[in-house]
Write a structure and sequence with these properties.
By secondary structure, the protein is α+β, with helices and mostly antiparallel strands. It is 30% helix and 24% strand. The longest helix is centred in the N-terminal third of the chain and has 17 residues, at 29-45. It starts with a helix and ends with a helix. Keywords: Iron, Metal-binding, Oxidoreductase. This is Fe2OG dioxygenase domain-containing protein.
Length: 286
């Protein structure tokens, strides 16, 4: 019989280096001090990076799980604009925001990751979700309810990269399970848009190849990175060397039970998800 998510949540804390990152108690003592440090860094820089977030043996287990699952994943050729949607026909033909970017990734969607896996244990941790909520200063925060987007594992093989994009939700967390030998740097334009608008000048500069205002930092395996992916244009530079870069992507949302539009999921996940959704729609109208 499958284990419940409550059981999985309890076990998730065994994976985290709680001595270094005391997220189990954020109300007092070391946990409260640590939370304030994370919040301040997020406010000042638009990101918060926690090196060696997992215990050494836990990182080995999660990376092992990912490497065992990835051979079952599809190699996706993802073509999209930075907003992950259709091109705005009102923009001039030479507007950089009309440009579509392509990247190639081996990717597991949430429905391909077993609920008993330690990756799911970590993502379904109530305490971890609460930590992310507090760092992001949200009144409410929920794990994404979308059956494909909630938790993903992405492998970028040598000569691959992750194209510029905004996430479909604001609060995204990445856990680097296996670093590239060189390259594969997470690069982003902090707070390049808000609910009121977008810094088109900064975005246009970046899309034209000007990286002078972008931020990038090196991360080792086990790094847990919080950032505002829905508001910060971001991507991953080209992976070099012989080893793929493998990351887990955890998606959170202020809205409960939110799912992503079918066209966006098909754009990201390709034929497999298109077939699932088409079969479901056919059954619903039969």
């Amino acid at each position: 019989m499958p284990e419940s998510h409550q059981t999985l949540r309890d076990r998730a804390l065994d994976l985290i280096d709680l001595d270094r990152y005391p997220i189990a108690d954020l109300e007092s003592g070391a946990g409260a001090v640590f939370l304030e440090q994370c919040q301040r860094h997020m406010d000042e820089h638009g990101w918060c990076n926690l090196a060696d977030f997992l215990r050494t043996e836990a990182l080995e287990q999660l990376n092992g799980e990912a490497n065992e699952l990835l051979p079952t994943a599809e190699t996706l050729h993802v073509k999209r604009n930075i907003y992950q949607g259709a091109i705005d026909p009102s923009l001039p033909d030479d507007d950089p925001r009309r440009k579509e970017f392509v990247h190639i990734a081996v990717q597991l969607a949430d429905d391909q990751i077993p609920v008993q896996s330690k990756l799911k244990q970590l993502y379904h941790s109530k305490i971890l979700t609460e930590f992310v909520r507090r760092v992001q200063r949200k009144d409410h925060l929920y794990r994404c309810a979308d059956e494909f987007q909630a938790l993903n594992v992405v492998a970028l093989h040598p000569e691959s990269w992750h194209a510029w994009h905004y996430d479909t939700t604001e609060c995204t967390v990445t856990l680097l399970l296996q670093a590239a030998e060189t390259g594969g740097e997470f690069t982003f334009l902090p707070n390049s848009r808000t609910d009121e608008g977008e810094d088109h000048e900064a975005v246009d500069r970046l899309l034209a190849g000007d990286m002078s205002h972008a931020q990038s930092f090196s991360r080792g395996a086990g790094a847990f990175t919080l950032f505002r992916g829905g508001y910060s244009l971001h991507g991953v530079t080209k992976v070099q060397g012989a080893q793929p870069r493998i990351s887990a992507i955890m998606t959170y949302d202020e809205q409960p039970n939110r799912v992503i539009e079918d066209d966006i999921n098909i754009r990201i996940y390709g034929k497999r998800v298109e077939t699932i959704l088409a079969s479901r729609n056919t059954a619903a109208t039969a």
